# Entry
Amino acid sequence: MLEYTANGIQTAPSTERILRLKTVMIRTGLSRTTLYRKISEGTFPRQIKISIHGAGWRESAVNQWIADPAGYRQQCL
# Structure
């Protein structure tokens, strides 16, 4: 599926990136300890497993948190 900008220029569809811990820490300004505490409280997005020993965060979820950190609540499944 192709996407178009406001002036009609064709662009590739946006893709979801997976962010690793260091990148999330830089983008949010939070420490590792604070990130994991917020995850356990449900006030920061959970990681997703990307390999046997690796995990990361969906960029869109991190962006959602950045847009409203005080109002973010983990969605119940």
Observations:
- The radius of gyration is 15 Å.
- The mean pLDDT is 86.
- The longest helix spans residues 32-41.
